[in-house]
């Protein structure tokens, strides 16, 4: 009797252990495939993409400006009195007297600002005087300062670099038709992660498109500005600035004439006129210089904006593909663990 009872108890113990073991295996198949892998999948994010900015390709107009010595002389002329002839005035007159011939001084003094046309500037005599003044160290400092136009934004001379596309990924679920709850949960976690990555990617692409549209707006503004800065009216306005400077200086010289020493008036008038002729010649040079039309520069700018957009898009796509490939890897490992858990079922 005792033996029979002992056998019955042993059988019940074995049956209980068997039922618990099966239940545990079933529970394991329903639980997350691997806590660590699941956590990694939950935390997976799209890497931050450092977006390139499009260089501001635009024409920087050239300019012609009065030199510091010219400004100083013109200012000093207005302060001449019977008892005061500034050193800058006396020095300027002396430098002209030793640099230019009487015939050259006479020819310059026959020119008035209103007569300083292209015909006068292109005359052999005026061209020769300007060349002589430009080569004379004593007169160079009185001549206008010339800055050529240039195109900004192309200093590197290169194109926007591309990037690799990253590792593309086949995101199809492993054993997608398998109804095992463990596999289903792994796929569910993967899909949630993919949705998060898709959302982050869409936001990055929106930033790129917004930046591109702003680039196009800036390019249009630059085009309109460039067109205005290269119009005949713009260069005529520059000429009028030079003519006004000369007229103001001549007016101050006329007031100072009674107080000047013999010969100083003629020398200073010649200097003012050579400054004017040099200024106008440089404005003509600026207008004639052709770097490229405003439309051509705008086309270059648009091409650079397109390159930047494409490069940034490729960077985002590469980061997205890398993240998605990692998500697939984690999901597949989780599904592999599902098989391991279920093998004793």
Automatic annotation (TrEMBL):
Coiled-coil spans are: 183-229
Identify the keywords attached in UniProt to this record, alphabetized.
Coiled coil
What is the protein's given name? YfdX protein
């Amino acid at each position: 009797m005792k033996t029979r009872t002992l056998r019955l108890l042993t059988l019940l113990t074995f049956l209980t252990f068997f039922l618990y073991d099966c239940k545990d295996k079933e529970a394991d198949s329903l639980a997350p495939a691997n806590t660590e892998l699941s956590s990694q999948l939950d935390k997976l994010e799209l890497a931050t993409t450092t977006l390139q900015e499009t260089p501001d390709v635009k024409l920087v107009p050239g300019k012609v400006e009065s030199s510091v010595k010219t400004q100083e002389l013109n200012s000093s002329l207005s302060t001449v009195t019977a008892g005061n002839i500034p050193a800058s005035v006396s020095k300027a007159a002396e430098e002209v007297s030793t640099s230019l011939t009487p015939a050259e001084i006479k020819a310059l003094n026959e020119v008035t600002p209103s007569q300083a046309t292209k015909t006068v500037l292109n005359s052999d005599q005026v061209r020769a005087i300007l060349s002589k003044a430009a080569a004379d160290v004593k007169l160079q400092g009185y001549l206008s300062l010339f800055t050529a136009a240039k195109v900004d934004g192309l200093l590197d001379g290169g194109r926007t670099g591309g990037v690799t596309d990253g590792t593309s990924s086949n995101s199809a679920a492993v054993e997608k038709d398998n109804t095992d709850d463990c596999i289903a949960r792994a796929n569910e976690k993967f899909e949630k992660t993919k949705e998060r990555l898709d959302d982050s990617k869409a936001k990055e692409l929106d930033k790129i498109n917004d930046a591109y549209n702003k680039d196009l707006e800036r390019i249009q503004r630059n085009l309109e500005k460039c067109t205005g800065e290269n119009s005949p009216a713009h260069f005529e306005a520059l000429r009028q600035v030079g003519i006004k400077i000369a007229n103001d200086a001549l007016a101050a010289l006329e007031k100072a004439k009674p107080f000047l020493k013999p010969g100083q008036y003629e020398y200073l008038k010649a200097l003012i006129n050579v400054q004017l002729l040099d200024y106008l010649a440089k404005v003509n040079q600026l207008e004639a210089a052709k770097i490229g039309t405003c439309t051509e520069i705008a086309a270059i700018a648009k091409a650079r904006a397109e390159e930047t957009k494409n490069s940034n898009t490729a960077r985002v796509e590469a980061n997205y593909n890398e993240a998605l490939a990692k998500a697939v890897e984690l999901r597949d490992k989780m599904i592999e663990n599902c098989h391991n858990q279920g093998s004793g079922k």
